User: What shape does this take?
Amino acid sequence: MKCFLRSVVTLVLLAQIVLIGGSIELPDTERLVAEKVAKFLSTILTDHSGGSVGGVCFFGNLARWWREVQDFLPIRYPPGGRILWRTQFIAARQCETPELCSTALWVGGGDAWKCEVVVVALTQKHLGKHLETLSNVPFWTASAVHVFVLDATRARERDHQLTELLATFGITRSLYVQAKRDSSFEVHFPILFQRRVVPVSPLEASHRWLQNFDQLANLHGFQYRTLYHTLIPYLYRYDGVFGGPDYHFLQTALERQNATHLWIYHKSTDTRLNSTDLQYVDRKLLEWGRVTFSLNRLMVGHPSSQLEKLYLNSFDGTCVMVPRRQLQTFILRLWEPFSQYLWYAVLLIALLTIVGNVALPKLFVVNYLLALLFGSAIVEYRLAALDRTILLILDILLFLLREAYTAKIITYMIQIRYEPELQTMAELAQSGPPLLLAPGEYDKFAETLASMKPSPRFEIRQDFSSFATTWQEYFRPGFAHLVPCSYGQALVLSDEMNEPSAPKFYLLRERLSMLPEAFTFSRNSPFIGKLGFFVASLQEAGIYGSWLRSDHYARDYTPTLDEILRFENLASLFYVLLVGYVASMVVFVAERLVAKVRASLSRKRLRVWAKRARIEAGTGNAMQTRLS
Assistant: This one.
């Protein structure tokens, strides 16, 4: 039965070979090489697939004996002996294009299988054409083992060129096989990121190298490339220095993998990506392979089969960052430390003291208001017991009110310098500034904003940021802006925003969207597993949380009551003093003018009196002269 099945499968495969290129008998030496290579591929497939349904796919201009390899693959013998009921058939397929070896799901014998081992034939004569064909493959299956069959011509430059190219394909499990004319073959293992090839024995190729050697443990200076723009959560750039928890994560991954890094910034002069929507630009650069992965945790857009997400077990959303408005009526705040009824009580007590002095002057001899204002001029021990008791009660009440008022005013000087914060989009639409939206943000949230009643005002951003643009320049104080919530919270609490010259913003409590956070990779990127391991390890160890707490963007800078008053906190006090100084100057000038007017009138009156006296004196002398 076993021989019968093998014969049937062999005949079927021979029929396929006839259709492909005709059946030609091979010499015994070449058949021996084909049988050895077939067993080698079967061993690799058995070790790599782990019992799963998979097969061997062939691509390229295979020599006759490589077609013969397929004749030795139909039966896979399990470890421990050739037991019939444990025999498995190895599926084999000739791919017309390399994409089919990476993406196709083949169906044979009622089972669906994919290419666990991909055999690619390369010849020195047509190497340039072959490499160009391989470079045009959109993506390769990183989980499969790729065996590159090389002709007998040994070329070190060819191996190094192929090794450098494989690193860009994302293929981390690969072998080079070179058949010889003496019924033997050589196996070489490429260390991709070191760009060198080491010879290995066929027995060690599968267990020691393919299974245990970690290509991503040491990248030997491989350059990670990521796009930078202003609105990436947990990443910032201040005075030319990068920071943030995700930047610390990137530096940790680079150090652990012995890699380097390059920031890429999109320019408006890019003819292929003439867009100000950096979400779209980031996604396209990933699809084209111009960046390694995206640190933007909230990358959104149309679902793409060419991208994969590394989810971070956290959620974030889109928030509205609103500029703070300076408090224009601080003088009116001087009435706020006490409630309205307490002010009424103070006025009532003052009126009662005045009425008591006026209505009952013999009982209430002392003017209590003047005594409180100018208490040092009164000898209290000479007063009556009733007056002393009333003055004591009023003095205690005044002391409590004065100290409480001073404490509240100091609190206002520290904390209350701006108008009350808006809470919802409806309040923003009624009394807030307009939204400044980038074109990509408008495309995403246009329907959401239009469905709100009342609908907030908005303008489309005409400018966009460059690598040297700071957040102070990007977020204009006259507009509200859409930002990732984590980025906005970190920025609002940062020491940069607490600088006196920096614009001040806050976040609305209402969010526009809620999304899971994730790093984004191109499909089948070899780095997603390794970076996912780093993320999980750092989160479980609490290091990521420590970065979030210790980073200066995430510190809590809310002033407390026991904080030392700073010069900028006393600005409101100086405003009050300035108003008082101006009022005193006005009163002083008015008093001087009144004094001068009175003096002038007095002198004028004296001159009139003197003139009148002289006239009267002259008239009297004249009358006396006449009489005499």
